[in-house]
C-alpha cells in the first residue's frame, strides 16, 4: 500500500470554520446546555462561538436592535413603538408619506397618527420622503476589473450613478442648509457622504464628512452611520489605517453595524487588530481592541481576558469572551455521539482484495451500512473525513486493539458512578489540555464573580463546576443567585435539573417516579400529528440537540451500566431499529422489558412509547429468535419460533421519495410474491452460485441442485416451511446412502448461502435484500456487545453475530464421506473452500496490526504484515482448494470453476 501525504489544502476542501460542509454542521454536534445568548447586550450575538457560519446566528432569529430605528423612535418622542417606527422608516412608501404631507393619509398607521403628525415632525417626514426617493439608488456602482476572466457587461441594477450627480448633490446640500433640526441636518450630511462614496467620488465623500457631519456636535447613531460611509471612502482611497480605525469606532459605538464593521476592518488592514491596539488610547478602546484580538485568536483566550478584566471586570464583551470559552469546553465535554474503537466505522472489515473472493464476479452492487437506511444519519465531520479517506485509499481494516477489555460490569458502575458519556476521557477532545483549560477558566470566573455586579458570572461558575462533576458546589451557587433576568432564570432552572439528575449514580423506580413528578416536561414530548404520506421539506440536520436530549443520553448510559440494556436501547431507538443489528443479548433484554409487569410511569410513558409500529410485537421477537436459531443450525428451535411468528407483519421499512414539493414518506407495502422477512423464499437457497453477483437476479447468480428426492422442498416457501424442510433433510442426512449425502450437501448449501458470503445473506438477519446492513462485515472483536456507553449510535454501527462457517463445513464433510459421485464431491469441496475463506476473513479481522501512519517505515511494515497474513492464509485456510487441485483436476466441475471463478483460476496457476 502506498503512503499518502495529505496537505492542509486538501482538508480545507472539506471544512473551514466559516463554511462547514453541506453534510456536516458542527453546531449540531453538542448539546448547548449553557445558552450563549443570555448575554445582555444582544448587539454582540454575531460574535458568539460558531463553527458552522462566519457569524453566530446566520440562521437564527436575531434580536439585535437597529440604532437607526431607536433614534427615529426617540425623534418622534416615543409616540410610535419600535415596530411602528420600523414600519414608518423602512416599509411605508414615499407616496404614502406624500399623502400624509398633503393631509390625505390612506395608510392605516398614518391615519392613526393624524394629519397633525406631519406638522409636528415636518423636517423629519420631509427627510424620509427624500431618503425613500434615494434609497433604490444607494449602492456602489460595479466596475469590471480589466483582469476579470468573465465579462458580465453593463449591470442593469440601479446604483448611485443612475441619478444625476450634480442635481442630487445640489438638492441634498440645499435641504441640509434649509433644515434647522441638527439631527435631521446631520442625516442630509450622511446622505451626501454616502452618495459620494457610492459614486466613487472618494475625495468629495471625505470633504462632505468634514463639512456636513463634524460641525454638528452630535455623535449619535447618525454620526456613526456617516462614519461608516467615510471609512468606506477612505478604504477606496487606500487610506487603510484611517479606514480601519474609523471602522473600529463604528464597531465600538453601534449596535446593528458591528458585524459589517468587523468585516470591513478585516478587509481594510491585514494586521487590523494589532494596528488598532497601537492606536487605542482610552480604556474602552483598549478593552475593545483586546476583545477583537481574543476573538480572532486561535490560542488560549484567558490571558486576553485577564487584560480585559484589569480594565473593566463588568465589561459586557468580557462576558462574550467567557461564554465563547465555555462553549468551546462544551464541544469537548458534550458531543451528541460517542464513537470508540469498538463501535465506529472502522470496527469491521469487508472482504479483502479481488483475488481473495471465493468466486469470480466483481459485479457486486453497492452495500451501504445499516445506518444509511435511516434518513436521520448525522455523522460528525471528522467521522466522515476518516471514512472518506479510508475509502479513498482502500483502508478497511479495524484499528481496534481493545480485545474486549471494556465490557461493562456492575463493579464499574459502583466504582465509577460518574461514568456518563461526557465524563469519559477518550476521544472528542477531552484530554489534559482541555482539563487545564477548564481549571483556568473556573479560576478566572470565580475571581470575576466576586467583583462584578452581574449574576452572569455566578451562573458561569456554577456551570463550570457542573462540568467538573462538583454538583453540590454547583447547586449551592445556583441557590444563592438573586436575579430577575428571565434568561438567567431559565438557565438557572435548567442547571438545577442537570445537577439533580446527573448526580444520581443509579436510576431505580423511585428515581424514575421523581423524574416524572418534577421533570416530566423534559421527557414527555408533545406529540405532533403527522401524516407519514404527506410531503414535507427535508431537514437534513433535524432538531438542534437540546437539554432533553442530553438527559435522555445520561439515563441511557445509566441503564447501560446497570445492565438494563433493553431500557438503554429504547431511550434512543425504536423497537423496529432492532432489525438492523439483531444481536441476541440485546434483543432478549428489550423483550424482557416489553414483558415486564408493573412498569413505572416513566417506563410506560417515556421508554415503552418506543415499542413502535412493528405490527405484532411478539411475532417480531419470535422472528428474530427463529432467525438466530437457523444461523446456529438449530432447525427444531427455529421452527418453534416461526410457528409463533406467523402473524409477522413484514420487516418495517419506509419509502422515501423526492418530489418537487419535498420528501414523501410512506410505509413500505410488500407486494404479493415479494420477500417480506418471512414468506416467498426460493428453493434456490439450497442451490449454489454460478457466479458471485449480489446485484443480479437470483436466477442469474444461483443454480438449483437436484431436489427431486426431496419433494418437501417447495419452489417457494415461508420460513416455517423452510425450517420444516431442514428438519426433514436433517433426519435423512443421518443415513448412509447417496440420498443422505445429498441431504447433507443441501443443508451445507443453505448454511453457506445465508452466511455473510452467501447470496441469501439477508435471510436470517432481518433484512429485505442482500445489499444493506452489516451482514457482510467481519468483526474484529470477541465481545458480545460492541457498544460501550449507550445505544444512541446503534444505527451508525453494524454488528451482527459472527457466522459459524464450521456448521456448513461439517455438513459438507458428511457428503464427502458418503458420496460416490466424484463430481458431487468436487462441487462440495469448492463450497467447503469458500466457507474456509470466510473463516480466514474472520481471522484477519481479529489480527489487525496497527501501524502509525507517520512511521517512516509504514509501507515496509504494512507490506510485512500483509505477507504474514498471506502466508497464514495459504498454510491454514486453503486446505480444500489444495485438495481440489491435487485430487479433482480431471473433473468437469473443476474445469468449469477454473473458467468462471477468477480467484480459483489464480490459485490453480500458483
UniProtKB/TrEMBL annotation:
<feature type="signal peptide">
    <location>
        <begin position="1"/>
        <end position="22"/>
    </location>
</feature>
<feature type="compositionally biased region" description="Basic and acidic residues">
    <location>
        <begin position="353"/>
        <end position="369"/>
    </location>
</feature>
<feature type="region of interest" description="Disordered">
    <location>
        <begin position="397"/>
        <end position="418"/>
    </location>
</feature>
<protein>
    <recommendedName>
        <fullName>Tetratricopeptide repeat-containing protein</fullName>
    </recommendedName>
</protein>
<keyword id="KW-0732">Signal</keyword>
<feature type="region of interest" description="Disordered">
    <location>
        <begin position="349"/>
        <end position="369"/>
    </location>
</feature>
<feature type="compositionally biased region" description="Basic and acidic residues">
    <location>
        <begin position="399"/>
        <end position="408"/>
    </location>
</feature>
Amino acid at each position: 500500500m502506498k503512503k499518502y501525504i495529505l496537505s492542509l489544502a486538501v482538508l480545507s476542501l472539506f471544512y473551514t470554520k466559516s463554511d462547514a460542509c453541506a453534510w456536516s454542521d458542527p453546531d449540531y454536534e453538542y448539546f448547548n446546555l449553557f445558552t450563549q445568548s443570555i448575554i445582555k447586550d444582544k448587539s454582540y450575538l454575531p460574535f458568539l462561538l460558531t463553527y458552522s457560519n462566519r457569524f453566530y446566528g446566520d440562521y437564527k432569529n436575531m434580536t439585535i436592535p437597529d440604532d437607526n430605528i431607536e433614534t427615529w423612535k426617540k425623534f418622534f418622542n416615543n409616540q410610535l413603538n419600535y415596530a411602528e417606527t420600523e414600519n414608518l422608516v423602512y416599509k411605508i412608501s414615499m407616496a404614502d408619506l406624500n399623502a400624509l404631507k398633503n393631509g390625505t393619509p390612506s395608510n392605516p398607521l398614518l391615519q392613526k397618527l393624524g394629519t397633525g403628525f406631519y406638522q409636528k415632525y415636518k423636517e423629519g417626514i420631509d427627510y424620509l420622503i427624500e431618503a425613500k426617493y434615494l434609497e433604490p439608488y444607494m449602492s456602489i456602482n460595479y466596475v469590471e476589473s480589466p483582469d476579470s476572466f468573465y465579462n458580465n457587461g453593463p449591470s442593469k441594477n440601479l446604483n448611485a450613478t443612475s441619478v444625476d450627480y450634480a442635481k442630487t448633490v445640489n438638492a441634498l446640500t440645499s435641504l441640509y442648509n434649509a433644515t434647522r433640526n441638527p439631527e435631521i441636518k446631520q442625516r442630509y450630511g450622511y446622505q451626501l457622504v454616502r452618495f459620494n462614496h457610492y459614486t466613487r467620488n472618494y475625495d468629495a465623500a471625505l470633504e462632505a464628512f468634514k463639512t456636513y457631519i463634524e460641525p454638528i456636535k452630535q455623535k449619535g447613531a447618525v454620526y456613526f452611520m456617516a462614519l461608516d460611509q467615510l471609512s468606506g471612502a477612505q478604504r477606496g482611497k487606500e487610506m487603510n489605517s484611517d479606514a480601519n480605525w474609523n471602522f473600529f469606532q463604528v464597531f465600538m459605538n453601534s449596535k446593528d453595524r458591528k458585524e459589517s464593521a468587523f468585516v470591513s476592518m478585516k478587509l481594510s488592514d491585514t494586521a487590523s487588530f494589532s494596528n488598532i491596539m497601537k492606536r487605542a488610547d482610552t480604556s474602552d478602546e483598549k478593552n475593545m481592541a483586546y476583545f477583537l484580538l481574543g476573538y480572532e485568536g486561535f490560542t488560549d483566550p484567558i490571558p486576553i481576558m485577564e487584560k480585559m478584566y484589569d480594565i473593566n471586570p463588568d465589561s459586557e464583551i468580557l462576558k462574550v469572551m467567557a461564554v465563547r470559552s465555555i462553549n468551546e469546553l462544551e464541544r469537548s465535554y458534550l458531543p451528541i455521539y460517542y464513537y470508540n474503537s469498538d463501535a465506529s466505522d472502522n470496527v469491521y472489515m469487508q472482504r479483502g482484495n479481488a483475488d481473495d473472493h471465493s468466486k469470480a464476479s466483481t459485479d457486486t452492487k453497492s452495500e451501504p451500512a445499516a445506518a444509511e437506511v435511516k434518513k436521520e444519519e448525522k455523522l460528525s465531520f471528522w467521522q466522515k473525513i476518516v471514512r472518506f479517506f479510508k475509502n479513498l485509499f482502500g483502508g478497511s481494516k479495524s484499528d481496534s486493539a481493545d480485545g474486549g477489555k471494556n465490557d461493562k460490569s456492575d463493579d464499574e458502575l459502583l466504582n465509577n458512578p460518574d461514568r456518563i458519556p461526557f465524563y469519559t476521557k477518550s476521544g472528542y477532545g477531552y484530554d489534559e489540555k482541555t482539563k487545564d483549560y477548564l481549571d483556568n477558566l473556573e479560576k478566572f470566573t470565580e475571581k470575576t464573580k466576586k467583583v462584578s455586579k452581574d449574576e452572569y458570572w455566578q451562573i458561569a461558575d456554577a456551570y463550570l463546576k457542573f462540568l467538573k462533576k462538583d454538583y453540590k458546589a454547583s447547586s449551592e451557587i445556583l441557590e444563592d443567585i438573586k436575579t430577575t433576568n428571565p434568561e438567567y432564570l431559565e438557565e438557572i432552572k435548567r442547571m438545577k435539573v442537570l445537577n439533580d439528575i446527573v448526580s444520581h449514580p443509579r436510576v431505580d423506580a423511585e428515581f424514575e417516579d421523581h423524574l416524572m413528578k418534577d421533570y416530566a416536561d423534559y421527557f414527555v414530548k408533545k406529540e405532533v400529528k403527522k401524516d407519514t404520506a404527506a410531503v414535507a421539506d427535508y431537514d437534513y440536520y433535524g432538531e438542534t440537540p437540546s437539554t432533553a436530549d442530553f438527559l435522555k443520553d445520561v439515563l441511557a448510559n445509566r441503564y447501560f451500566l446497570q445492565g438494563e440494556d433493553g431500557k438503554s436501547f429504547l431511550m434512543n431507538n425504536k423497537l423496529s431499529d432492532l432489525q438492523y443489528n439483531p444481536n441476541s443479548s440485546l434483543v432478549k433484554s428489550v423483550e424482557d422489558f416489553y414483558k415486564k409487569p408493573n412498569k413505572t410511569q416513566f417506563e410506560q410513558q417515556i421508554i415503552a412509547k418506543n415499542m413502535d409500529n412493528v405490527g405484532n410485537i411478539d411475532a417480531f421477537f419470535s422472528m428474530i429468535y427463529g432467525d438466530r436459531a437457523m444461523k446456529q443450525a438449530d432447525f427444531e428451535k427455529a421452527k418453534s419460533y416461526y410457528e409463533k411468528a406467523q402473524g409477522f407483519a413484514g420487516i418495517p421499512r419506509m419509502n422515501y421519495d423526492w418530489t418537487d414539493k419535498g420528501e414523501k414518506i410512506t410505509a413500505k407495502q410488500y407486494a404479493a410474491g415479494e420477500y417480506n422477512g418471512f414468506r416467498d423464499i426460493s428453493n434456490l437457497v439450497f442451490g449454489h452460485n454460478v457466479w458471485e453477483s449480489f446485484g443480479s437476479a437470483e436466477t442469474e447468480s444461483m443454480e438449483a441442485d437436484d431436489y427431486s428426492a426431496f419433494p418437501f422442498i417447495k419452489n417457494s416457501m415461508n420460513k416455517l416451511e423452510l425450517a420444516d424442510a431442514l428438519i426433514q433433510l436433517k433426519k435423512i442426512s443421518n443415513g448412509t446412502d447417496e440420498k443422505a449425502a445429498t441431504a447433507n450437501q443441501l443443508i451445507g448449501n443453505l448454511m453457506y448461502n445465508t452466511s455473510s458470503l452467501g447470496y441469501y445473506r439477508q435471510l436470517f438477519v432481518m433484512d429485505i435484500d442482500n445489499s444493506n446492513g452489516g451482514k457482510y462485515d467481519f468483526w474484529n472483536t470477541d465481545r458480545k456487545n460492541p457498544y460501550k456507553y449507550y445505544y444512541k449510535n446503534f444505527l451508525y454501527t453494524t454488528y451482527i453475530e459472527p457466522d459459524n462457517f464450521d456448521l456448513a463445513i461439517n455438513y459438507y464433510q458428511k457428503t464427502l464421506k458418503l458420496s460416490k459421485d466424484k463430481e458431487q464431491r468436487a462441487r462440495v469441496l469448492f463450497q467447503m473452500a469458500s466457507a474456509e475463506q470466510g473463516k480466514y476473513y474472520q481471522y484477519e479481522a481479529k489480527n489487525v496490526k496497527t501501524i502509525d501512519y507517520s512511521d517512516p517505515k509504514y509501507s515496509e511494515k504494512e507490506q510485512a504484515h500483509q505477507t504474514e497474513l498471506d502466508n497464514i492464509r495459504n498454510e491454514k485456510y486453503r486446505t480444500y482448494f489444495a485438495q481440489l487441485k491435487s485430487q479433482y483436476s480431471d473433473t468437469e466441475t473443476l474445469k468449469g470453476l477454473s473458467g468462471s471463478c477468477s480467484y480459483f483460476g489464480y490459485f490453480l496457476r500458483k
